[in-house]
Amino acid sequence: MLPMLKRFLIGRPLKSTELGEQRLNKTKALAILSSDALSSVAYGPEQILIVLITVGMTAFWYSIPIAIGVLLLLTALILSYRQIIYAYPHGGGAYVVSKNNLGMLPGLIAGGSLLVDYVLTVAVSVSAGTDAITSAFPTLHGHNVGIAIAFVIFLTVLNLRGVTESASILAYPVYLFVLALFILIAVGLYNIATGEIPPTLHSPIGTPVAGISLFILLRAFASGSSALTGVEAISNAIPNFKDPSPVNASKTLMAMGGLLALLFSGIVYLAYYYGVIPSADVTVISQIAEMTFGRNYMYFFIQGTTALILILAANTGYSAFPLLAVNLAKDKFIPRMFLVRGDRLGYSNGIIILGIASILLIISFQAETEHLIPLYALGVFIPFTLSQTGMMLKWIRQKPKGWMPKFIINTIGAFISFIVSLIFFLTKFTQVWSILLFLPFIIWLFHRIRKHYEAVGDQLRLTTCEPSSPIEGNVIIVPVAGLTHVVENSLNYAKALSADQILAVYVSFERDDEKKFEEKWKKWQPDIRLVTLHSHYRSIINPLTKFVDTVEHKAKEANYQVTVIIPQFIPKKGWHNILHNQSSLLIRAFLLYRRNVVVTTVPYHLKK
Amino acid sequence: MLPMLKRFLIGRPLKSTELGEQRLNKTKALAILSSDALSSVAYGPEQILIVLITVGMTAFWYSIPIAIGVLLLLTALILSYRQIIYAYPHGGGAYVVSKNNLGMLPGLIAGGSLLVDYVLTVAVSVSAGTDAITSAFPTLHGHNVGIAIAFVIFLTVLNLRGVTESASILAYPVYLFVLALFILIAVGLYNIATGEIPPTLHSPIGTPVAGISLFILLRAFASGSSALTGVEAISNAIPNFKDPSPVNASKTLMAMGGLLALLFSGIVYLAYYYGVIPSADVTVISQIAEMTFGRNYMYFFIQGTTALILILAANTGYSAFPLLAVNLAKDKFIPRMFLVRGDRLGYSNGIIILGIASILLIISFQAETEHLIPLYALGVFIPFTLSQTGMMLKWIRQKPKGWMPKFIINTIGAFISFIVSLIFFLTKFTQVWSILLFLPFIIWLFHRIRKHYEAVGDQLRLTTCEPSSPIEGNVIIVPVAGLTHVVENSLNYAKALSADQILAVYVSFERDDEKKFEEKWKKWQPDIRLVTLHSHYRSIINPLTKFVDTVEHKAKEANYQVTVIIPQFIPKKGWHNILHNQSSLLIRAFLLYRRNVVVTTVPYHLKK
């Protein structure tokens, strides 16, 4: 049943040698890796207006200079990341770059931030996409959480199938979204040029605004920079590109930067000229689309592709999170299971954990994105800052030919990212303070895990010359519950092992029972010694463990090994197991984990 | 953590020898076992009026003759059950009586009905009690399901602590409820006698009613007989009484019958005289109390004790369900786990399962009792009929001295119970049809389980002389993952077993890896043969299982036993386990359940 369902959802297993085929060409990579960044224009411009409206509608003209600032920031980031792609063709992004150039702690800060940020990517994007859908179809309001969770499950299954197959499905919506926004911007600009949109809707640039302050402008700028989340995705995923991967990745990055700049400027300008007021019910893009086309098929086309790209933006998280987890797991900071490739060659554990974490986040925030976006953006700009700073040090240390322009580019990138991070802390502290608790905690956890792996490695390595103690003999303990074929089977096995001593142990709950059993036993197995233990509290494990302890203590002195042989009958059908008390399983787990005895299970397979 | 919480909630474990102390004296037994029956007066009279109101308020006078019919039914049942108590002093109630006298199938019909009925007892009583609370405090409306679930959890914990301790807590509310209703009835009758309540509120007995029919009267009678649910509880729980248990149980039964008759008659009469109209929001008792006392402290005392006894009525289910489950499990019709006494000597598994099932029922019916009561009452009257019929046959077969009056009493009981069951089917088919699907299903399940247990018993019994095949030798397979102390440890153990052949098996995912490993192995363990398997799909289990199959096939021909020795390192702390892929656990489970090999786990305990 379950394996069949798995095959149906995920597809046939792939051989390890099929890995090469899973790589991405540029067109598919642009779709798969830039949906996060491109979809940000669906909420970035709106975030600027949400801050400015606190002063008044006349302040909306400030969105134009703020947008120019965001575009400068974008240019700096794109150029900086282009250099990272060539310097680190094996990918890894902020974690690897920071670790290699700045040291372990900055690397872990970047890695920890990003790990959580990818969960936020999924939660924020899917929730925003769901909002877009419920905006267009108000009857669906109130089902946001359910819809969002369904999308996360859908994406998780898609990614478990493998990255190329996902890309084929995901490419169309991304390109349709770009097309839709280009049409919207073009028609919007045409309407403005022909004067169909009256210029009275907006306040002219330079209008004096009462109550505006540098604090508010910085806050609006920081909010607007949330449109840049996701630009780092490509630099993290270079190994997913077809060869030559750095060249292809770099070209894809530039294409993405260009598209993002065009769409962002277009939407900000239209929103400003149309005088759009941000509202809790209708998104800014929805308002622009409605004012441009009315509620006709073009409106639904734009809303539909916006919703789709937002939901698929979450997919960037699915590409990036498992790869980052692999890098962290290779360095032993997170559990080794993230290194295992699943049936379809994707890092299944990372994909599944990401899905679960996002669903939990969606449930606890009830699919409301407003409170998550600042944390999300900050979680991106901290690693931005660290990786650019790392690049600066790299250039200074290595000083390759023509390093000076590269150094300047990364310095600008680092400086701006740092300033943006600082602005977030200063202007949105109430929404981002939790990162100050979370980052130290996760870094402490990273170190605990690493310490454990190192301790285990030390103890297992043969070079640590702790001599293995020789085994001089074997004492066998067989817990028995009755005179049955199962017990007979186990006793035969014990005899065949030519042990030095075999002890059968019977735990009785009632005194009368003991003597009867001992008599029967003497007749049945006269040559195997039976020990009877009485249990006051109707527990088998407690008296048995005490007995095993006593035997082990004596055996140890003579370098004897104690083996507990557990007779277990295996029912023919799985559901039969609930009809039998699983004492043998409990005994095994208890002895193995708490005592230094070998536990042997002798199965007796029932035939009906 | 968890064990401490368990100790706090449930108390210290009790020795098996402390069992005697857990028995009940008559006062406590009356409280614990009759709360179900007595609490039924909180909804029984109301059920009659709900049917009569469909004709009109003038029909309310029919509640008096109907109540007389219910009282006759009660008398017959009490007398019949009194005979059952003496005839079956070890308890068991309808299941045992029907099984012994009528045969297995009627026994199982009775047992199956009751098993489900006790779940309904808990669900209905707790929900009705919650209703009483939310009637008095309307602000709590809308939280019914949550409150009801909290009460079920509370009762479950109480019963896991053990039956006597529960009784001490439960005795007071039951007696307070009886006191409260007696005061209510007394003051009500006084008011009627002094003429404070005008006789104009009710229609005189004998008033002709348009539209009344036998169907409606029978329906009202059946509804009213739901006030008798719970009278069988005492006869099921005789072993819980102090010695001489049958005498004590019989006295308790008579006391309960008397109290029930008085309370039921009183409430029906007051409801009739006051002209109370049943309403969805306020219970009949609440209306009577309000009209008698106003909304003062006496009103809240009556509502409070009513709510308490209703919730505690659920406790009857907790006393009866585990005992019935023990009887069914002894006959191998339900899983053996119901036979195990927990730390506090209660049958914990029955208690826990009952709690979970009731919560599920409360959730799926949203704590609305109206639809459950008919099913609940029918589930009681089917076993009533069967056990009384069984008693009839018993008297006819055994013919003890003076059997004739006993036979007549049971015959009347059987006949009336049968008629009531029939009336339920005829007049409330839409609410009780599901029992016609459910009963055959559960009886089929009972037989499946019994068949399995019998098959297992046959196969395990030594008398079935299938000769155990001798073990001529031992082939040992050791799956190895690297050159470590863990593997060294396991190999030392394997060597100490003086096996005929030891095979180390290494599963590699990459071709390059294989040769390197083989070379290292030759240097390290030159005298143990290494087999290298290549896994295309990154699975360890598949190639390993195939290999084990091949070895087992060869070994079988020579009567050799195959043992798989799994090296496993045990981390020092529990949480460390999530940091290591649990391949050894998977391998063990897979081999043990699917193949006929002995699986030995050699632990290597890490020290840090």
Task: Give the SSE layout.
The structure is a homodimer of 608-residue chains.
Chain A: H1 2-10, H2 26-39, H3 44-52, H4 63-87, H5 93-102, H6 104-136, H7 144-161, H8 163-193, H9 214-224, H10 233-236, H11 245-274, H12 284-293, H13 297-330, H14 348-364, H15 373-398, H16 403-427, H17 429-432, H18 434-460, E1 473-480, H19 485-496, E2 501-508, H20 511-524, E3 529-534, H21 541-557, E4 560-570, H22 583-594, E5 598-605
Parallel strand pairs in A: 1-2, 1-4, 2-3, 4-5
Helix pairs in contact in A: 2-8, 2-11, 2-13, 3-9, 4-9, 4-11, 4-16, 5-6, 5-15, 6-7, 6-13, 6-14, 6-15, 6-18, 7-13, 7-14, 8-11, 8-13, 9-16, 11-12, 12-13, 13-14, 15-16
Name the overall outline of chain A.
elongated
Termini separation of chain A: 21 Å
Please summarize the sheet with the most strands of chain A. 5 strands, parallel
Low-confidence stretches of chain A: none
- The helicity of chain A comes to 55-70%
GO molecular function (chains A, B): transmembrane transporter activity
Protein name (chains A, B): Amino acid permease
Membrane topology (chains A, B): Multi-pass membrane protein
Organism (chains A, B): Mesobacillus subterraneus
